[in-house]
Structures are given as structure tokens and as C-alpha cells.
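User: I'm putting together a teaching handout on how multi-component assemblies are represented. Below are the sequence lines for each component of a complex, exactly as they appear in our records. Could you produce the 3D structure of the whole assembly as C-alpha cells, so the students can see both representations side by side? Please keep the chain order the same as the input.
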Amino acid sequence: MDILFLALADQTRRDVVERLTHGEAPIKELAAPHDMALPSFLKHIDRLEDAGVVTSRKVGRQRIVALTPEAFGPAETWIDRQKRVWEGRLDRLEAVAKRIEAETNPFPKDET
Amino acid sequence: MDILFLALADQTRRDVVERLTHGEAPIKELAAPHDMALPSFLKHIDRLEDAGVVTSRKVGRQRIVALTPEAFGPAETWIDRQKRVWEGRLDRLEAVAKRIEAETNPFPKDET
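Assistant: Of course. Below is the structure of the complete assembly, with chains in the same order as your input.
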């Protein structure tokens, strides 16, 4: 999971992911919009591939990169779980607050 | 966004977030399960606070840390958008495949 969040913690790598949601592409095309040396760009692709976010394959003299969107699953699930625990806690706090109000308010709204 | 993904790219920091979904806590309590020196642990809290994932306040001689779950918003939205673009593309590919099949199949299923 560290490696997945690290892979996404960089604007160049997120740009590559955004481009690949529209379909696979050769490295050269992916590198074109980025003002950096090819070896530096290839390191970004390596990071994405290590994290399972992309796969690449050689076709002739080109390397084609494709997205593996399932790779986001663990990150999504983790964030989602934190939100659900948090929201569950807020719901319980609200229920407790309502019960205390009902027990201490001598003129409950519903019974006036 | 880099800083947010980086904040989540560490097991200790994710543990802290998971603990805080159950409610705010003093630094000492948060540090207890982690086998590391307090200054190292405080750096993790700083990283989370810099990313807006937690806030902290001093109460007497304690520092209390609380979660800011809204901070996950940009990360969630970004991941979600990538998935939607990808799935939209799959839907369009499927539609094209069906059209080609309909145009080239001399015996379409529906008309036999």
C-alpha cells in the first residue's frame, strides 16, 4: 500500500495515469508533454509499474504502457473504510445526544 | 495532492489515521502502540498535519490530535475520476464492438 500511495504522490505520474485512462500508449507519446530527460521519465514509469498501476510490453522497438485500474482498489478501500468508521462514530454521537436531550428536556418537541 | 498521497504512504501514519477515526486522542496514546522514539513519531504527526489529514491543539500539557476526514476528498475524487474515464472508455469500446458485429454478421441473433 505504501508503494501505491507513493506512486500516486507525484504530478508527472498522475498525469501519466490520466492519459492512460483514455487508452494504452507508447512510452514516447507519454513522455512528449513532460519537460524531462527520457531516463528520468522512465523512472516514473518504473515506479508506476512497481506499484501495479501500469503494465508495459514490448512491441517491436516500442514499449507500450497500459493502465491497471484495479490497482487503485486497496487505496480506495482503505480511504473508504476510514470514512465509514468516522461517519459511524458521528451517527452514534448523534444518537447519544438525542437520547440525552430526550431524557433531560422536560418539554420534548413531539409531546407539547 | 502530492503531500496528501505521501502522508498516506506510510503504515505508521495510516495506523494513526485508523485510530483517530474512533475519536481524537493525545499524542502519548497515539504513540504507545508504535515502537519508535517520540521525536520520530512526532515527525509522522507533523506530516499528517501538513497534509491537512489531522489537526492538533494543546490542552494543558497535552497535545490532542483529531482527524480531518474531509482532507481525503481530493485523493478520493482523483481516483474516482480516473476510474470513471476508464469505465466510460470500456463502455464506448463495447458499443463499437457491438455495432461492428451487427454490421458484419449476416445472421444477427435478433433476426434469425
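A couple of points students might notice: Chain B has five helices and three strands. Helices of chain B lie at 2-8, 11-20, 27-31, 38-50, 73-104.
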